[in-house]
């Protein structure tokens, strides 16, 4: 902007174009910065002049007409924006449901679990608890497991503590030490493994990750100290599989959602402890690279897609990768088995004894426990029975009636006498009326209706119906097809409104992009940023699109972390139609761009 307009005006050497541009530039500066660069006298001097030639008059009129037309174009763009804004907020209630759908899903899932509580009268409750007791007695204790339990309780306190440092659940979970024993036997006193032994270990590792009940592969399992997740990540890196930017963006959203959830939970005394644990885990994962975390979160999908496309199984992939790693140092330089590990350090801290010493003492304790139990069976104090034709069990009756201070015997008696609602599936095969029924569910002693469900007048039944009704007031439901879960609209009318507004959002953005291109050319013509207002409108509509996608993505993938820890989003939900908006793929509206370009060219000619 020229500082001394008065001097220029006195010289009289300003062209009509220069005069008009000074006025426009001053208006733009005042509108964007609230600073005045021209006085009223300056404006009067710039506009109240007499053209000396017809060319000067035409030049002034050309810029004046172009400026007036830009006002009409700006007004049309404003109308498009405000209609778009109205439509966007019109579907705000649907977007809110999408944003909080994972929360609704979590609560409805909890309600479905509550509804599985078996409603009984007092007589049925006694019958069921007695039947579970009978089943427990029939089940007895597996002979090998009894050896394990007796061996553990016979160890010194130091060795027990060391074993728990190696593996938290070692007192009752045999998997870890059994796996270590298998590996030790396969080494057979040597420093290296035979090819046959490697094949066996790879097969066992691959099998360890497959959950037969859930019929899915679980990557956070271990075989001994071998982490299946690390085998999978190693395979992905060997294959050169790259993660997408969308996956990185999703990770950041999940982390942000988790942090928000943690902060809310920390304010409640009942959830503080859990919140602090989740926060610690989050910080630990943050120490590793984002790619490492992201790879773990997407590992299941990556391997499943690869297995499907190559007509193999995830187990095949893990076995192949494990074999390759065994050839390259697994169990030698990486994740050494405890039988030949002279170290004391572990993830949970240092052990008092070396790992090899702990393992040797464990094998001694097992041998002694085996002989003790065999002796008791020989004397008739305990009895055994075939379970599968090969495995043996110590019968429940003999254990229950055996008088001893052994902890595993006391534990068995306590289990028999205590009703355990979450024990597992127990079937009353001897009672045709209850065949296939769960005898070990949580029980609710309450009034029942004729269908065996909580009566409406009961406190439980009434409360469940009220809570369920509250969380069912959203616009969405789920359907399953071909192993996939789809998020669908409950109402055709709501779906129609949502899709219409989505299409209008796309069209409006395209129209505003067209006006944006026109105004960029006008900004060059008038040598001022006259598209400042339109830029803001385009940015706002761009944000509307981002919000649309974020709400939808959250509903499908729980990017805000509502379902974390509940297993609700092991696989993202899907929609039958593509409801997302590819903002970057939207092009300026051709009709508007052509029409308004022609109008300005007709007025401004080569100056546009």
Quickly list its features.
two-stranded parallel ribbon, single chain, mainly alpha, 608 residues, elongated
Structural write-up:
This protein has helices spanning 5-11, 16-33, 40-47, 54-90, 92-115, 122-139, 143-154, 157-166, 175-187, 195-208, 228-239, 245-266, 272-287, 290-309, 314-327, 355-379, 396-401, 407-417, 459-471, 492-526, 532-557, 590-604; strands spanning 118-120, 141-142, 210-211, 216-217, 222-223, 226-227, 345-346, 349-350, 384-386, 392-394, 443-445, 476-481, 484-489. By secondary structure, the protein is mostly helical. Among the domains are: 5-49, no CATH class; 59-116 and 451-608, no CATH class; 118-140 and 395-441, no CATH class; 141-188 and 342-381, no CATH class. A hairpin with a 2-residue loop joins strand 7 (345-346) and strand 8. Helix 5 packs parallel to helix 21 (532-557), helix 7 (143-154) packs across helix 16 (355-379) and helix 20 packs parallel to helix 22 (590-604). The radius of gyration is 37 Å and the shape is elongated. The model is unreliable at 425-438 (pLDDT under 50).
């Amino acid at each position: 902007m020229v500082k001394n307009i008065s001097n220029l005006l006195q010289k009289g050497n300003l062209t009509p174009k220069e005069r008009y541009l000074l006025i426009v530039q001053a208006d733009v500066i005042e509108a964007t910065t609230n600073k005045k660069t021209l006085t009223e006298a300056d404006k009067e001097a710039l506009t109240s002049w007499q053209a000396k030639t017809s060319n000067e008059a035409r030049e002034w009129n050309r810029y004046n007409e172009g400026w007036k037309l830009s006002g009409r174009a700006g007004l049309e763009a404003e109308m498009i924006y405000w209609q778009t804004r109205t439509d966007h907020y019109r579907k705000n209630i649907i977007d809110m449901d999408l944003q909080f759908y994972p929360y609704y899903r979590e609560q409805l899932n909890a309600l479905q679990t509550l509804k599985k509580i078996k409603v009984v009268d007092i007589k049925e409750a006694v019958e069921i608890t007695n039947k579970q007791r009978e089943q427990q007695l029939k089940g007895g204790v597996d002979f090998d497991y009894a050896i394990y339990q007796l061996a553990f309780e016979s160890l010194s306190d130091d060795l027990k503590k060391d074993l728990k440092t190696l593996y938290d659940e070692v007192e009752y979970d045999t998997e870890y030490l059994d796996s270590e024993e298998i590996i030790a036997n396969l080494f057979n006193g040597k420093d290296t493994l035979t090819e046959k032994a490697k094949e066996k270990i790879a097969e066992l590792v691959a099998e360890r990750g497959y959950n037969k009940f859930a019929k899915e592969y679980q990557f956070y399992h271990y075989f001994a100290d071998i982490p299946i997740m690390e085998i999978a990540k190693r395979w992905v890196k060997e294959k050169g599989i790259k993660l997408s930017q969308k996956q990185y963006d999703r990770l950041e959203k999940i982390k942000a959602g988790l942090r928000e959830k943690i902060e809310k939970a920390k304010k409640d005394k009942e959830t503080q402890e859990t919140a602090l644990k989740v926060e610690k885990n989050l910080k630990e994962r943050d120490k590793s690279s984002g790619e490492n975390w992201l790879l773990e979160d997407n590992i299941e999908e990556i391997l499943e897609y690869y297995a499907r496309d190559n007509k193999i199984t995830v187990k095949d992939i893990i076995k192949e990768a494990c074999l390759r790693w065994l050839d390259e140092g697994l169990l030698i330089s990486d994740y050494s088995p405890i039988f030949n590990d002279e170290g004391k350090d572990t993830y949970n801290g240092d052990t008092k004894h070396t790992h090899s010493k702990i393992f040797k003492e464990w094998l001694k304790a097992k041998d002694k426990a085996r002989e003790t139990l065999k002796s008791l069976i020989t004397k008739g104090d305990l009895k055994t029975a075939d379970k599968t034709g090969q495995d043996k069990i110590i019968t429940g009756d003999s254990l229950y009636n055996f008088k001893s201070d052994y902890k595993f015997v006391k534990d068995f008696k306590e289990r028999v006498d205590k009703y355990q609602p979450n024990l597992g599936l127990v079937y009353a095969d001897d009672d045709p009326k209850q065949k296939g029924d769960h005898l070990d569910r949580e029980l609710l002693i309450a009034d029942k209706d004729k269908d065996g469900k909580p009566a409406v007048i009961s406190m439980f039944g009434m409360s469940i119906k009220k809570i369920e009704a509250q969380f069912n007031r959203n616009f969405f439901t789920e359907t399953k097809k071909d192993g996939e879960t789809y998020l669908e609209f409950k109402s055709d009318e709501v779906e129609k409104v949502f899709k219409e507004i989505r299409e209008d959002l796309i069209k409006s953005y395209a129209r505003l992009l067209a006006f944006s291109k026109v105004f960029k050319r006008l900004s060059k013509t008038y040598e001022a940023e006259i598209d400042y207002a339109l830029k803001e409108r385009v940015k706002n509509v761009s944000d509307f699109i981002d919000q649309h996608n974020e709400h939808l993505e959250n509903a499908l993938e729980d990017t805000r972390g509502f379902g974390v820890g509940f297993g609700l989003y092991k696989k993202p939900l899907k929609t039958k139609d593509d409801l997302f908006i590819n903002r970057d793929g939207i092009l300026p509206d051709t009709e508007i761009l052509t029409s308004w370009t022609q109008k300005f060219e007709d007025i401004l000619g080569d100056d546009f």
